[in-house]
Write a structure and sequence with these properties.
The complex is a heterodimer. Chain A is of the alpha+beta class. Helix content of chain A is about 30%, strand content about 40%. In chain A, the strands form 2 sheets. In chain A, strands 1, 3, 5, 6, 8 and 9 form a 6-stranded mixed sheet that branches. In chain B, the strands form 2 sheets. A 4-stranded antiparallel sheet of chain B has the order 4-3-6-7, with no helix packed on it. Classes of the chains: A alpha+beta, B mainly beta. Strand 7 (about 120-130) of chain A pairs antiparallel with strand 5 (about 70-75) of chain B, so a sheet runs across the interface.
Chain lengths: ~160, ~100
């Protein structure tokens, strides 16, 4: 009996808490993802073409190619068996790097990630990304106000954007 | 929520710099995949990751849906010494949050 009462009390308390929380969340407008993460560049991440993503993120789509930026995709480079996790590595000796962006040209949403660096962070940066099909992968660095870009073509056996 | 949090972080001093490796446990659903019942799995992905060293913010990573499942990141922090506290905080598009921290070895 005591157990049952206890159980009921718990359910009641749980229900009350979640109801009040939901009411609070709903009234404060927090359910809108845009409000929740106002600092997340929604336009850039939901852009469906490379140019749109670049324009939204950097304000320009034309960037000079530069060999100062070393960029490796896939293991072994330029090939990936499974597109669901393709290793990438970005290395550069450029000073004052402010921002790094990684884009996959043929993904449904090209912008993969966008790093905001402080002088305390140093390259190389490594991560894993998803690639839907054989595509150009692009790394862009903004250093000292200038943009640098390196592109690599990657072959993918199993697409990874399902 | 009953979720077992398995986020991992390692920070190691290498010659002069600190090497930080992070592995977050997250499904990273793109919103395009289907489950066994051919229903779309709603999008659920990490949007924002921040890294602090001794309370000072050093790196922000904004992610789209194309970051791989169980995201992995590796980067270097200039200088540093043993005993520095490195912490990571992430937020996903549904508002779920996670923190993980470690001491530089």
């Amino acid at each position: 009996m005591i157990d049952k009462l206890d159980q009921q009390r718990r359910t009641f308390v749980k229900g009350a808490i979640s109801a009040s929380t939901m009411a609070l969340v709903a009234t404060s407008g927090l359910l809108l993802p845009k409000r929740l993460l106002a600092h997340w560049p929604t336009d850039a991440f939901t852009a469906e073409t490379l140019e749109d993503a670049l324009l939204a993120l950097l304000g320009q789509a034309e960037i000079a190619n530069d060999s100062a930026l070393k960029f490796k995709v896939g293991a072994p480079p330029s090939y990936a068996v499974n597109g669901a996790s393709v290793p990438i590595e970005i290395q550069s000796d450029l000073p004052n790097i402010e921002r790094i962006a990684v884009l996959v040209e043929k993904n449904p949403l090209p912008l993969v990630m966008n790093l905001e660096m402080t002088p305390a962070v140093k390259l190389p940066f490594k991560s894993m990304i998803k690639i839907r099909e054989d595509s150009n992968v692009m790394a862009i660095i903004r250093a000292d106000g200038k943009l640098y870009k390196t592109t690599r073509f990657v072959e993918v056996d199993i697409g990874g954007c399902g | 929520m009953g979720l077992v949090v398995k986020d991992r972080i390692r920070a190691k001093l290498k010659t002069d710099d600190t090497n930080v490796r992070v592995l977050l446990a997250h499904p990273m659903h793109t919103g395009r995949a289907k489950n066994e019942a051919e229903e779309l799995i709603p999008a659920e992905f990490i949007q924002d990751i921040r890294c602090w060293r001794n309370g000072e913010e050093v790196l922000t990573i904004k992610c789209g849906t194309a970051t791989a499942k169980n995201p992995y990141f590796s980067f270097q922090l200039v200088g540093g010494q043993q005993g520095d506290k490195i912490s990571i905080r992430w937020v996903d598009n549904l508002g779920a949050k996670g923190t993980v921290e470690t001491i530089v070895k």
